[in-house]
Every structure is written in structure tokens, then in C-alpha cells.
Amino acid sequence: AQSVTQLGSHVSVSEGALVLLRCNYSSSVPPYLFWYVQYPNQGLQLLLKYTTGATLVKGINGFEAEFKKSETSFHLTKPSAHMSDAAEYFCAVSASNTGNQFYFGTGTSLTVIP
Amino acid sequence: GAGVSQSPSNKVTEKGKDVELRCDPISGHTALYWYRQRLGQGLEFLIYFQGNSAPDKSGLPSDRFSAERTGESVSTLTIQRTQQEDSAVYLCASSLVPGPGHEQFFGPGTRLTVL
Which residue in A40, A53, B58, B101 has the most C-beta neighbors within 10 A? Predict the structure, then answer.
């Protein structure tokens, strides 16, 4: 079975500082990995995804994530935080043996301090 | 509309009452998912529809929960005899193409409060 662990339910960074949100997954087969962002009172929006190929994936709003199979990780980074990045971030995994199910982490709330 | 829509946005009900939640997926999206998001927790898969195939109901927590979908359009999630532990945000998502590697587009959710 697949699962996702997001370390740190709350992360605070200063505006302009590096953003690092951690995600570790468990999967017995090659995974598909996703990062979604949820702004207040809105649905989840896809930031980026890894399916196959290049392990460094670039997404919207300057975010990127690197798939590291040896570490079973898919951490999300952004070089310089903006105030508008304050939101809830969810990591998710799916795989060929999960049917149509996606497995989501418990989320990380990002606060950006001016 | 351009995105997934859900109604109502908020629903407050009394314990024991039935509720219906509605989801309008993006036009042309064949796959539709329902999730539950409890406070401080991740998304919990409930049910999946794909075209005219039998739905994947493996995530429904009890027989009080049911869902229907008409063709490739609107879906309703029904919770009978609501309990306080049903309080959560219920999210609907749709996908143009089914399968594990494809993006799901989410609606804004329905916040259900059971008193």
C-alpha cells in the first residue's frame, strides 16, 4: 500500500527566505508524486507532479521538487518565499497498483513572515 | 463554469438528519472523486466514478454514505443519519483521463457541520 508522510504540520519562513516542505512516501512500485496547494476557502490546485523521466520537476509559482528514490522523498522547495505563498500544501502519491486512489499527506501550513 | 463546483459551500445540520452534497465536474472529465478532509488531517478517499463503470466505493466509511453520478455529469454524495464525526470538508475532484498519473482538479468543498 502507498502512504505519505509530511514532516512539520506548520512551517514559518521569512519573506525572501528558502521554502522547504518535506514529503516522504512509501510505495512498493514506482510512484507518481504530486504537490497541491490549498488557499483559504479554495480547492486544491496542482503545483507540480512527477510521473517519469527527469527527477527535478518544476511547477508553478517558482516551486520545484526533486524525486529521490533512494530517500523515498519528494521535497518541495522555492528559493525565495513571497507573502502570497502562505497556504496549506499537500503531498500525494499514487501508483499503478493503487487503482484510482491517491493517498494524501496530512498537509503543511506555510506561514510567510514579512 | 471553468472549474469544479460544489454546493452548498456550507451546511449545518442536526445529528440524525440526512444531507446531500452536490458536485459539478469540469465538462468532459470522465473521472470523478469524492474525498473527506477532517480538521488537521489529510484527504481521505471516499468514492470514484469513471464513465458508466461500477464505482469504486472502497473508501466509504459506512453504509450511511452513498453517492450517485449521472453519466459523466453531476454527482451527489448522501450521508444518512448524520453523526458528529461526519463533520468535515467534503471535496470533489474530476479528471479528464482516469488513472494514477493524471491531475485531479478540485472543487472548493462543502463544509459540513453536524450539531
Answer: B101
Q: What percent of chain A has pLDDT over 90?
A: 74
Q: Are strands A64-68 and A73-78 parallel, antiparallel or unpaired?
A: antiparallel
pLDDT of residue B46: 94
Q: With beta carbons less than 8 A apart as the criterion, state whether A75 and A90 touch.
A: no
- Say if residue A97's pLDDT is above 90: no
CA distance B25 to B5: 7
Q: Which residues of chain B have pLDDT under 70?
A: 1
- Residue A81 is classified by DSSP as -
- Between CA B80 and CA B65 the distance in angstroms is 7
Q: CA B79 to CA B34: how far, in whole Å?
A: 13
Q: Strand pairing partners for A93?
A: A33, A103
Residue A64 identity (one-letter amino acid): E
Residue B90: closest C-alpha in chain A: A43
CB B4 within 8 Å of CB A43 = yes
Q: Classify strands A10-14 and A108-113 as parallel, antiparallel or unpaired.
A: parallel
Q: How many CB pairs under 8 A join A and B?
A: 69
Which residues between 61 and 100 in chain B have a beta carbon less than 8 angstroms from any beta carbon of chain A?
Answer: 91, 93, 98-100
pLDDT in tens, A24-75: 999 888 889 999 999 987 889 999 999 988 899 999 999 999 999 999 999 9
Does A103 touch chain B if contact means CB atoms closer than 8 Å?
A: yes
